[in-house]
Predict the 3D structure of the following.
Amino acid sequence: MIYSRTRNVLKFYEWFLLLSVIIAGLFTIIWLRSAITALEYNIAKLEETKVELIKERKELLAERASLSSVKRIEGLAYQKGFSIPDRRYIHLKKRNESPEVITVSGTLKLDELLFNRD
Amino acid sequence: MTRRAVILNTVIVGFFIVVLIRLFDLMIINHGRLKARAEVQHYKKESKEVSRGLILDKRGRELAINLDAESIFCRPHEIGSPERYVLALSRFLDKRPEVIRARLASGKKFIWIERGISSEKVEPIKRMNLKGIGFVTESRRYYPKAELAAHVLGFVNIDQRGIEGVELMYDSQLRAVLRNASLLRDANGRYLSDGLEEPKGNNVVLTIDEGLQYISEKVLENAMERWKAGWGVIVMMDPYTGDIFSMAVRPAYDPNYFNKYDPSVRRNRAITDSYEPGSTFKLITAAGALQEGIVSTDTKIDCQGGKIKIGSKIIEDVHPSGVLTFKEVIDRSSNVGTIKVARMLGPHRLYHYAKLFGFGSKTGIDIPGEASGYLKKPESWSTLSMGAIPIGYEVAVTPLQVLRAYAAVANGGWLVTPHVVSAVTAPDGTPIYRMKYSSQRILSSRTAFILKEILTGTVMENGTARLAGVDGNTVAGKTGTTRLFDQRLKTYSKDRYVSSFVGFVPASEPRIVAIVVIGEPKGGYYGGTVAAPVFKELADATLAYLRVPREDINYLRTETKNSTLLMQKVIYEAH
């Protein structure tokens, strides 16, 4: 008799626990779904902001492209008193690669050896 | 159990049974129908806006980009009083009321009121909250450099489809795939994110350099003004690879407002228009005769005092001469001398070399609308043809074909394929396609070298192109002057000419090959007077831009290793 009563109490708790888990599970699912929906709204809002920012970026890109045009820069340079240099007075110096030297530690340029020594 | 309890139980159970039946109806019997209805209410099918890829110059500077623009549409069957709409829309869109009225009365279910306009214009209309009027944000192509390289870039229509130029040729690459997306929205019409990125087209990288393009256009513009010319073309190319550095065409147009220009203005004359090349075509005779070993540079040719009879016609030289060497014949651009050499070569070999240089065929440039020119077969040549074709008449060529032929001399005998696109990259910059260079040998390097020497002479003191000479670097090239054929009178015009100069610089190791063609100049017409100075101006600025050293300066070089290194160190630090 005592054994039977204990078993009934346990059974009651089992059922209670099971129901609690099911209800908690249901509420969790509902909560998750609503949280996801809320998140989707948030993302959609952020996307709207992103679209606005992309639009602004496109306009800035257009402005940058117009501002950096060679024609405009040349015009500004002339205004500031600059002129295209006369090629007769430009002396371009050839940048020859310095000879390579094979060392124990590997290949080094000769100028590295000469100038970068501690 | 009391009677009341039974009734209560029955009501409760009955209620639940009704609920269950309704649920069964909603979820099982009518599930499909209701689901479809819900989807109609919650999902909206929309074409996602796609951005066309960018067009960049060889240094990554933007030449064609996208801007967002607003478009207004209307569903006429949803609007009440059209007159109210007509007044409001015409006021804010600066359109005549009749235009709006006609559109609204078109009887269609959907009509565009205006497309591609600024959001500032649209805002007041949005605020009016007019029923049946809708708004959509669309992408609009924008060319920030306006007229610069317009004939190369081309333009797109209102639906962002390429219509001309690179925009048309690479349309499939530039255009992203239009994606139809189902967007989820709630009862208030608010959208939920689909989490997908906006699709973008691939970017196209050109071989055009904005700096060189600007120089070419500026120089051409000056020449057009100076000679009050009808049209003009400058094309500049890398002789070794076929990379087009610049392609300037006048008259010009702004691709942002392409509708406002006549189609003839939008034509890329560098590739679509053929003309008779005149003396620049003497290269073919010279190349053929040298390659076949018929003449050498010192071969003496009697120019008969500058006159030769071909059939019933007498062809004359501008500067009559007696006996000249073959080199002098080309340098002084003697028609008589060239015709006599061409006779030695014969019509079949002359035709063969003209074909070998690519005349009468398209160059294969990646811009649509290229003309192949005109070169008839020797079988259909008349008695006059052997007097006309060697000096550049009875043939039609495009400026690009002539440029390509001279590039073959500049690069040692290889015929290259010109192109304006060097690569196609994904929106993130990953290369998708790179231009594959192609060329074929058409001349021996020895012949090319001799031709280069001869062409250098034309820019010297006794040559026809003295004014093309550049300070500090040797130029090689050839002038051309032709009369335009009057289609109405069926004869050559006496006052309409085409002046041209094609050349390369520095002659020994060419960095650029360029052609200048000035159509219908006023106040002068010889290639040496009109086009050659334009080439000089172009070459001067280009060589400075490309930092090509002068050939007449001895660079500071020291013999000992250590002092050389010391000097280099100083230069490195200065940089």
Remarks:
- The radius of gyration of chain B is 34 Å.
- Chain B is about 35% helix and 20% strand.
